[in-house]
Amino acid sequence: MSTDKNQYYIVEGSALPEVFLKTLQVQGLLSKGEANTIQEAVDRVGMSRSAYYKYKDVIRPFHEATKGRIITISLLLEHTPGILSVILNEIARAKGSVLTINQNIPLHGMANVTISFETKEMEGPVEELLEQMTSTKGVKEVNIVAKE
């Protein structure tokens, strides 16, 4: 299997080696101003500066990788009046820009919907928006289909 250096993957955090998680912690401390120097941040999380420098450019939180991108999500919604409107309002509230909406005819009380939206102007991480959608009454599933 050949690997492309510019290939990206979505990996659950629990599957990542500890060095990647610590690198993310250092980045968080620095970006929030909770550490003034890289040395201070790596000392706080218990990693070496050399390990941080080795991985700092190859790992970042999902929301940073999706900033300014087009995200396509697939939703399984109950066939309830207004549920799609609630989802679209959540995207608008987060300042996402909806590009396309495809909705299939409901079968057995459920409808498949695919929405593509731009994240350039979004406030907050995409994960937070997806969690809000998932917790919305009548939403059975939310999945990321593509990221451009």
Key traits:
single chain; Alpha-Beta Plaits; 4-stranded antiparallel beta sheet; 148 residues
Give a quick summary of the entry.
It is built from six helices and four strands, in the order ααααβαββαβ. The protein has helices spanning about 20-30, 40-45, 50-55, 60-65, 85-95, 125-135; strands spanning about 70-80, 95-105, 110-120, 140-145. The longest helix has 14 residues, at about 20-30.
What does this molecule look like?
The protein folds into 2 domains: about 15-60, no CATH class; about 65-145, Alpha-Beta Plaits (2-Layer Sandwich). It has 6 helices and 4 strands. Strands 2-3-1-4 form a 4-stranded antiparallel beta sheet, covered by helices on one side. The relative contact order is 0.17. α1 (about 20-30) packs across α2. Helix content is about 35%, strand content about 25%.
Chart the SSEs and their pairings.
Elements: H1 18-31, H2 38-45, H3 49-55, H4 62-66, E1 70-78, H5 83-93, E2 97-103, E3 110-118, H6 126-134, E4 139-147
Antiparallel strand pairs: 1-3, 1-4, 2-3
Helix pairs in contact: 1-2
Largest sheet: 4 strands, antiparallel
Mean pLDDT: 87
Count of folded domains = 2
Q: What fraction of residues sit in β-strands?
A: 15-25%
CATH fold-level name of the largest domain: Alpha-Beta Plaits
- Just name the CATH architecture of the largest domain: 2-Layer Sandwich
Helix share bin: 25-40%
Gross morphology is elongated
CATH superfamily of the largest domain: ACT domain
Low-confidence stretches: none
- How many individual β-strands? 4
Give the termini separation.
23 Å
How would you spell out the order of helices and strands?
HHHHEHEEHE
Structure annotation, total helices: 6
